[in-house]
Amino acid sequence: MDERAVGDGAIDRRSYLKLAGAAAAAIGTSAGVAGAQSTEGMKRIELDYDRYGDPSQLYNVNDNRSGIPPEFVSSPTNGSSQAIRMEFSSAQKTANLEYRFEENGYEMPREVYTSFKLYPDGIRLSTNDTVRIFWLPLTNGPGSSGGGATDGTNGWSNAIGFANRNDSPAPDGYNFFSYSYHMDRGGSGDFQMTDVPIWMDQWNEIEGYVRCNTFSGGSANRDGVMRYWVNDELAFERTNLRMTTTESNLIEGVGPLGYVVGSNLSGDALIYDDHEIAIGGMPAERDDSPPYDEDPTLVEPGAREQYEERFTYRNGDEEAAYRIYVDGDIVQSDWSQATYNESVEITSDEYAVVEATAEPGTIDGYFFDGDIVAISADDPSQLWVSGEQIDPADYPDSPPAEDQPDEPLEHVVLVDGLGTTSTTRYEFAVSGSVEKSTDGGASIDDGDAIDGGRVTGLVGGWRDAFRFSGELEELTVDGAARVSVDGEEIDPADYGDELPHVLTVVGNGSETSYELTVDGTIDTVLGDASAGGAERQTTETVTGTIERGVHRFRFSGELVDVAFATGETHVYLDAERIDPADYSGETRVLPHAIVIDGSEADDATDYSFTIDGDVIQSNYRDATVDRADSLEGTSAAGSVGAGERDAYFFDRDITDFQLVGDATVDVYHNVQ
């Protein structure tokens, strides 16, 4: 193979796939097939060009706009006696050559693998020109081309090709692209470029694998697959597509296509040889499925429901080694964007220990039970636990030594809400360990959270208690509850920063009047311009007028309202600029929260739900407030993008919930 086939712009990633293995039933032997070989779960179809006198004996030839019929030629070939030549005229298109499965005695398959050799003869493209070379696949209908809407019943398609884009190594080669009609595209086809070249005036090997999504009750799941290889290099991959909602809209056919957008390619041609097809599976020489049967520490993505948590390791630009300690069980899986890492070793003694080396730009995935107790990692790009990004610096490099006794939890902090008429929010941190306690007649509240040595919670007319070791280092209390340590009442102002957050209003040269409200305490900063330009109306609200400079305020709790009486200007929460429209006086009035978390999803997720009480949008847990999402009475509906979160506050119960996509959903009770 020419050394250029490796290409400087290669996608450096691993890819593995697990085939469904559903066989497509053969009704008869195709008259256009030189030989059909069956293996378990798969049928191979080899199209021997040397046995035919005209391409129309093998393919359904249609939509020929060039006026030049496809023909067999004796040169160039890829070792056979003849190949198919499709010559361009001044028209955009040569023809469709479709190998249609039902016309050749097969049912419409759910999955197809096909390979062919391509020789682009004399083609030279101007900047941004594109050439489509193959239908892989094509299911004819209004939803398969021409800008028609793809609804899951009316056809779909993917045309692959090459284009002079993405710094193509022109004129020697042009980069591969995918152009797909599927249910979640917008406008015309979904055009996606790669950096993997197809070389001109030489033979290239092109391979593709497509598996239809699953569906039930007329609803499509986001698990359709498309993968393409160019000269043995993975060029393109998607695993979350929706193409169809019905058995009658599966894969109709595959085959050559010549279509140019841009230059006049009159006299130039696309030449094809060695076309092979596999339906219902994947040839063994291309099947890179993870070794589920051979590796006892590896499970399929479907095993996710058997474990409590999931862990994701996203590596950066350099090879990196890491180690994870879990006080439970942990297994590797190629779920979502994660791929199989053959270097992973998992041992179990006092802890389950993962040791692995991650290649640059890769993602490793795990399912586990229990808690992560230690992480040793060489500067990972990102770490996630069940949709929550974590910082490895928050974990020790290794668990405590076995012979080191646990430090006794000899101190008690009591948050006493007895006799109060409103809710008190509290947060504190200790230098040692901490656990919930019933000291002083306190109740154990599942809604209170412990993260390392930090505790957050709330009390109404009851008590919360915690036993801890070390020292009480920080304490913030928003409300009327009293706090004592070891039976002695303390002043929260003596511990850490009573007002831990900073809110900054920046003047823009025009007079702006504003009002800021929090659900804790807010105050002006001594010596800052806010001391003269703003006024504290209540412990929760300040108002002010600004033209130039900045007004700074310190506060505890959460920011719930930013309102402008006149003008408008920039506002910063701590170090980040915020959108005032995301904060309204309604935000923090309902007790429970639901978060639709797309931070680790591959694509957008649609959702809808109904509450038998009230519901409002929220920026809880760094969610975005999207005005395009719908709220009608007690029902909400919207779409959360990949890498984003949507959140809502509500009271009472969720009575109905629908989710289409791979975002996670978390419900938090009594967060107010």
**CATH architecture annotation name of the largest domain:** Sandwich
E-strand count: 54
* Overall 3D form: elongated
Instruction: Identify the CATH class of the largest domain.
Output: Mainly Beta
Give average pLDDT, whole number. Answer: 82
Low-pLDDT windows of residues? 1-40
> How many individual domains?
5
Radius of gyration: 31 Å
Number of helices: 1
Q: In percent terms, what proportion of residues is strand?
A: over 45%
Stated plainly, the CATH topology of the largest domain is called: Jelly Rolls
Assign a percent range to the helix content.
under 10%
Protein structure class = mainly beta
First-to-last CA distance:
65 Å
Q: Can you describe this structure in just a few lines?
A:
With 672 residues, this protein is mainly β. It is built from one helix and 54 strands. Strands 1, 2, 4, 5, 7, 12, 15, 16 and 18 form a nine-stranded antiparallel beta sheet that branches. It has a seven-stranded antiparallel beta sheet with strand order 3-6-17-8-9-10-11, with no helix packed on it.
Account of the protein in words:
By secondary structure, the protein is an all-beta fold. It folds into five domains: 44-286, Jelly Rolls (Sandwich), CATH 2.60.120.200; 301-394, Immunoglobulin-like, CATH 2.60.40; 411-494, no CATH class; 501-583, no CATH class; 592-669. Helices cover 1% and strands 46% of the residues. The chain is built from one helix and 54 strands. Strands 1, 2, 4, 5, 7, 12, 15, 16 and 18 form a nine-stranded antiparallel beta sheet that branches. The radius of gyration is 31 Å and the shape is elongated. The N and C termini lie far apart (65 Å). Mean pLDDT is 82; it is low at 1-40.
